[in-house]
Amino acid sequence: MTAVTPYVMVDDARAYRAFLERAFEAEIVEMVPLATDPARLVHAEARIGDASVFCADSGPTGGRCLSSPAEPVHVQLWATVPDADAAHERALAGGATEAAAVSVQEDGSRLGGFVDPFGTLWWVSTPA
After folding, report:
1. Strand 3-10's sheet: what is its strand order?
2. Could you report the average pLDDT of every consecutive run of 10 residues in the chain (128 residues)?
3. CATH number, domain at 63?
4. Which PANTHER family does the record associate with it (predicted)?
5. pTM for the full predicted model
6. Disulfide: which of 26, 40, 50, 127 matches 34 by Cβ 3.0-4.6 Å?
């Protein structure tokens, strides 16, 4: 299965989550607080119909945040792909800059990141 999910970086992810609930009747299926500041979110997932939107608080301590070039990236794309390692390697060969090497996550999935030549931060993931 292959899918692309928008990853929106905002100043207040909890407020953004509330907006999605109000505006789209979104179902919040996951909220992960930042370990060093539980008022902030390092990751959240909202389901709107059959689609998902990921969001997190922007800034250098947000874990998944990356400067591009001097400001936090506001929209990231999350791609679920059959082979994260291969997609990551092809992106780097195509001119992308590595943001994070592909590695095994706590849930057994494989995840890596790169910034494409146009400044978009992509995360490629293969489920466990």
Report:
1. 27-34, 37-48, 51-57, 3-10, 75-80, 121-126, 110-115, 97-104
2. 83 87 88 89 90 83 48 73 93 90 96 82 91
3. 3.10.180.10
4. BNAUNNG04460D PROTEIN-RELATED, VOC DOMAIN-CONTAINING PROTEIN
5. 0.66
6. 40
CB 30 within 8 A of CB 58: no
Q: Which domain holds residue 24?
A: 3-126
